[in-house]
């Protein structure tokens, strides 16, 4: 693939490939509509992959109706926004990861060849079971295709996760795979200079999702590397999420630590009550 367009500021950044989590279809649509509208306003070519009804008519999808923005509806008519139904996507990719990666690269190259300054891709919840390790590994490999592309081209990717239509395994594994940048209900996390930067509130409602992202961040770290977590913008952490941090640190090998930077006062107290292990370190101040 040949890319001649000038780079954007976030090309190659983990933030160029994000996961948006929502607890209902409506809240998912609100967040996605805002993202799509913003990318269109920036002049990007947008590819949208979602679920259509039995009649397969895009005009029946929410993005073409009142819940979508005026800019989005106009973009569908002009061709700046292209919609592809998931069944059609599977057919075009012949059901293989290689086929999906080929399609993504072709879409990107075609858009840049048409003169669009940047490209955006988003897709709705895939509704995959992810019940065995083989399928989970394949899912991670498919998502890795986006990471490859954003490192080489002016591309932004938004993956959508609607927890109301996915099982608990899918939710946990999706957060694990997308741990570099997650925007969830009430909290978000992004990989920043090799460390995690958390914002918002962590309570029992999001504990499963936080646990998935934490597992992914720890799995990515190589032996001997500490996981640094910036908590300076976190307002609240309840006992469920505090326990996840404790259990994760206890499971790490002796040569690795989980280092919490500027945790809120309540979390410090909870960690003391939970008998914080030596591998879970609390420090004041950000990483040097």
Write out key terms for the chains shown.
288 residues; Transcription Regulator spoIIAA; alpha/beta; 2 domains; 11 strands; Rossmann fold; eleven-stranded mixed beta sheet
Number of strands: 11
Order of secondary-structure elements: EHEHEHHEHEHEEEHEHEHE
The CATH topology annotation of the largest domain reads as Rossmann fold
- Report the span from N to C terminus: 38 Å
Q: CATH-wise, what's the superfamily of the largest domain?
A: P-loop containing nucleotide triphosphate hydrolases
When the domains are counted, the total is 2
Structure description:
By secondary structure, this protein is α/β, with parallel strands linked by helices. The chain has two domains: 12-178, P-loop containing nucleotide triphosphate hydrolases (Rossmann fold); 186-288, STAS domain (Transcription Regulator spoIIAA). The protein is built from nine helices and eleven strands. It has helices spanning 25-41, 70-78, 86-93, 97-113, 133-150, 168-177, 207-220, 239-251, 265-273, and strands spanning 17-22, 45-50, 81-85, 119-123, 155-162, 181-183, 187-192, 195-202, 227-237, 258-261, 280-283. Strands 3-2-4-5-1-6-7-8-9-10-11 form an eleven-stranded mixed beta sheet, with helices on both faces. Strand 2, helix 2 (70-78) and strand 3 (81-85) form a beta-alpha-beta unit. Helix 3 (86-93) packs across helix 4, helix 6 (168-177) crosses helix 7 and helix 7 (207-220) packs parallel to helix 8. It is elongated and about 60 Å long.
Give a short overview:
It is built from 9 helices and 11 strands. With 288 residues, it is an alpha/beta fold.
């Amino acid at each position: 693939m040949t890319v001649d367009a000038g780079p954007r500021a976030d090309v190659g950044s983990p933030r160029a490939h994000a996961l948006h989590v929502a607890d209902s279809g409506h809240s998912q649509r609100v967040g996605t509509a805002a993202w799509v509208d913003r990318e269109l306003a920036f002049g990007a070519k947008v590819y949208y992959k979602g679920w259509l009804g039995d009649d397969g008519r895009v005009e029946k999808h929410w993005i073409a109706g009142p819940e979508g923005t005026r800019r989005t509806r106009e973009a569908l008519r002009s061709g700046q926004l292209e919609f592809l139904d998931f069944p059609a996507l599977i057919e075009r990719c012949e059901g293989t990861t290689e086929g999906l990666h080929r399609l993504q690269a072709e879409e990107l190259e075609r858009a840049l060849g048409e003169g669009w300054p940047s490209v955006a891709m988003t897709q709705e919840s895939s509704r995959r079971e992810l019940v065995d390790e083989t399928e989970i590994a394949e899912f991670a490999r498919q998502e890795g295709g986006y990471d490859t592309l954003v490192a080489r081209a002016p591309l932004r990717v938004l993956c959508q996760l609607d927890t109301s239509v996915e099982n608990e395994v899918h939710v946990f594994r999706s957060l694990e795979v997308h741990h570099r940048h997650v925007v969830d209900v009430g909290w978000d996390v992004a990989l920043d200079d090799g460390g995690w930067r958390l914002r918002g509130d962590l309570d029992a409602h999001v504990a499963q999702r936080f646990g998935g992202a934490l597992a992914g961040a720890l799995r990515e770290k190589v032996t001997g590397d500490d996981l640094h977590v910036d908590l300076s913008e976190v307002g609240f952490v309840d006992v469920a999420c505090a326990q996840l941090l404790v259990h994760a640190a206890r499971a790490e090998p002796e040569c690795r630590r989980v280092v919490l930077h500027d945790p809120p006062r309540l979390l410090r107290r909870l960690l003391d009550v939970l008998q914080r292990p030596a591998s879970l370190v609390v420090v004041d101040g950000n990483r040097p």
